[in-house]
Write a structure and sequence with these properties.
The chain has 337 residues and is of the alpha/beta class. It has two domains: 105 residues, Immunoglobulin-like; 189 residues, 3-Layer(aba) Sandwich (Aminopeptidase), CATH 3.40.630.40. Helix content is 33%, strand content 31%. It is built from seven helices and 17 strands. Helix 5 runs antiparallel to helix 7. The longest helix is centred in the first third of the chain and has 29 residues. The radius of gyration is 29 Å and the shape is elongated. About 11% of the residues have low confidence.
């Protein structure tokens, strides 16, 4: 009886001590504020911003957003201080220059990073060692890039007036699925950008699909032929980091159109060669140029091309590069006609 009573008292004292001493210790550990060390590395076309010295769960939960003002917002969503090897602990919400062209303001668990000429970002999270890496791409082109590719061409240099643009796939037909893109959505976005630029030059542009819908090849060909375009372009994504451009022998069978078929094929070839040359020389990517009896272009009653854009997982589509790619295609349309 006495032994049992002694055990109960001892157990009660132990639990009491745990409550008094251990719980505050746990709470203190939970509220511990970690210091994120920020290091900056400069490269020819981008600036690398590295956060280190924080737990892996902080990195994995971190939110990184590029705002409409071209400011990078980083929030670790847990107590953290920010420091740099040169400036020490950062405390000001007002942006402080920590490297040439890079300013950082901090507030609570977040910071705002301003980078001069910021165009786009790529975010990576690593566990061994733990770090958050942001590559901030700047819009200044490399010296070896062709200056002509950055200069928008005039609408008058493109002889065609009516275009039909065909964003490939749609609906349940998603096309290629990458880590950060789906082909049907990517080509829809690119086709809209391409169309808007043509419209600003006074051209008439029609899309075979305007949303996420399923269209058969027959539907696409019918939509194209109803508009009687001067050129038809079907847009897709390559499985590789290369630009593909395809033409096809025309499949029209009416005897009176045979002479027209020959001229259409010659026009296809000339335009495709001009675009391929501009892409290869101006953007430095490999170009695949082939002639294949693809139905979506073979049955269109106009010069018709199928292009495969470089895969987004190997080709960086920042605003400047995308405009240069569109400009290279437009130059080919003008030079090849």
């Amino acid at each position: 009886m006495h032994r049992r009573l002694f055990f109960i008292v001892f157990l009660g004292l132990t639990i009491g001590l745990f409550r008094v001493f251990d719980v505050p210790l746990i709470a203190a550990q939970a509220g511990k504020e970690h210091a994120a060390t920020i290091k900056i590395g400069k490269h020819p076309s981008f600036i690398r911003i590295v956060f280190s010295g924080i737990p892996d769960e902080y990195v994995q939960k971190a939110s990184v957003i590029l705002t409409g003002n071209n400011i990078i917002k980083v929030d670790f969503q847990s107590p953290v201080t920010f420091k740099t090897p040169e400036k020490g602990i950062l405390k000001s919400e007002a942006p402080l220059e920590i490297a040439s062209g890079v300013r950082i303001g901090v507030k609570g668990s977040s910071c705002s990073i301003t980078v001069e000429n910021l165009d786009d970002i790529n975010v990576s999270k690593f566990s061994t060692p733990t770090r958050l890496v942001i590559d901030a791409y700047i819009s200044k082109p490399a010296k070896e890039e062709k200056a002509i590719m950055d200069t928008p061409i005039e609408g008058s240099s493109i002889p065609m007036e009516t275009f039909v643009i065909d964003p490939g796939h749609g609906g349940y037909d998603s096309g290629i699925r990458g880590k950060n893109f789906v082909e049907k959505d990517f080509v829809m976005s690119f086709a809209r950008d391409f169309s808007h630029i043509l419209e600003k030059k006074g051209k008439k542009v029609f899309l075979t699909r305007k949303g996420d819908q399923v269209l058969s090849i027959k539907d696409r060909v019918r939509a194209a032929n109803q508009k009687s375009p001067e050129i038809f372009i079907s847009m897709h994504v390559s499985s590789k980091n290369e630009f593909g451009i395809y033409t096809a022998p025309k499949m029209m069978t009416i005897q009176s159109q045979q002479t027209e078929n020959i001229s259409v094929q010659d026009s296809d070839k000339s335009i495709a060669n001009a675009i391929a040359s501009n892409i290869k020389n101006g953007l430095g990517v490999n170009v695949r140029r082939e002639r294949m009896p693809l139905s979506v272009i073979a049955y269109v009653n106009a010069p018709a091309l199928l292009i495969e854009l470089p895969n987004p997982e190997g080709f960086r589509y920042d605003r400047n590069t995308k405009n240069r790619l569109i400009n290279a295609i437009l130059m080919g349309l003008g030079n090849g006609k």
